[in-house]
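Problem 3 from the worked examples.
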Amino acid sequence: MTSDLKRRYKEWEEWAITADQSDDGWQEDYPMPKWKLLMDAAIYEMTRQFPSQENIQFIDKCWAISQEGQHLADYARTHIDQCWDVLLLLTESEYSDTRWQVYDVLSSAGQKAENVLKKGLQDPDDYCKRRALLSLARLCPNDAKEIADEFCRHEDPYMRQAAFNMVIASKDTAFIESIRQLLLQDPAWHVRRAVSIQQ
């Protein structure tokens, strides 16, 4: 039997074939109320105790297409316990647009998300990795200094910029000041600027 979520996603797919895809977030140009009904169907399955494997795949697709407005992420952030099991599965998504949102949401679960976010620091996509780093920094892990020390020397300047959040999370004033001085000499202007204004 076809689930409501599968049926509504397939309808979205049919619409997408002829949709104008020239702008970011075009996926959400799907006419109302159909878009809301699709998101509501994904939320329903996301909060069920045992969603089917097929419906998990459609939840995943819905996260990916709604990344601009983050509709599902916003819901999951405020209903983290009900969504927890599905969120763990979504960290393995093939879609980077799903994974970065999930990493961002996970810090809402508090300390129980710490190990999952540390695994996210190995994500193959640098943007996903950065969102995992920022989310983990909000949890102020005990090994914040070690994590920060690694990422403030990353080849990606945006990763170095994000790493300063982890530096601050260490709460070690001497360490914070030493890394601040290091990053104030960073070749990327946006890293220098971020570090100069961040407390």
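Problem 4, a separate protein:
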Amino acid sequence: MTGCFICPIYDQGRDFEYGYEFVESAVRFHLTDSLYFVFSSEEQQNKFLTECKLRYAEAPHGMIFERNLSDCENPVTIKKFYALSVLSKSFDYIAAVDCECIFVKGIPAGQMLENVWKAGTCFAANYSVEGADVVFACAKALEIEHNKHVIKETRKFNYTWWFNDIPVYRAADIKPFYEWMEKNHYFEVIYHEWNCFDYLVYGLWLIMEKGMNLKRFEYKDDISIIESLWEPEIREKIKIEKTIGTHWTSRVKIQDNDNENIYMQFHRDRRHTRFRQFFGRQYRYLKHKIKRNFGRK
């Protein structure tokens, strides 16, 4: 099996620095050739790849998506969909990730992504507050919020699978998945709808068209439970990882042998704000809990 990772990146804020750290981890675990960054211009691509060669004596692959996205509400998804369309002809599995990731284990990309796909943990779902609202907003934008299969699998839009494991696409699905989006004019909808994250749309298609079942867990969180493990107030983080079966984590402190199933760490940009955001998270959770009690049933 073959596999690769795609990662949209912009020369703004600390994104390039996070990207360099991602590349450094790829170099360490011999995964550089499996990493594809999607740039907005040739200038940005040259700047990034040249710096990678200076720092690490090697560089990942680059792709350029030069379309002006100034009117786009969902540019990251559009870039990921572009890269998926190109690379699905060359790989069996493709993961679409962000630049704030690093690899923490050396295993061939194809094997890594096949392990995630066969485990089904990329569609592990937990009871959610804001995260499930995003799933509902995505389904509503696509006008599939009344689909019986979607309602059943999301338990009336109370569960989310977003980022509970590495978002892995099966390359064989890309052609029929894109045909479905083109037939229903969904690309235009996604272009203008921030809530239509790439992997939510893919999951909804799998549920509707392929009879895919979510792996539901009774963890409750504001968003997805694995996405929240960087937060200091969440206890038993490793136990949660193992219960979900995830292959990546946002947990801040990762030591050798903590969890041998973890291949990657993500959301590395959030750890510096974890204490400052604590009370804001509690406020949002209570607000949405009240909304859930009196909202959709």
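Solution to problem 4. Residues 274-281 have pLDDT under 50 and may be disordered. The chain has eleven helices and eleven strands.
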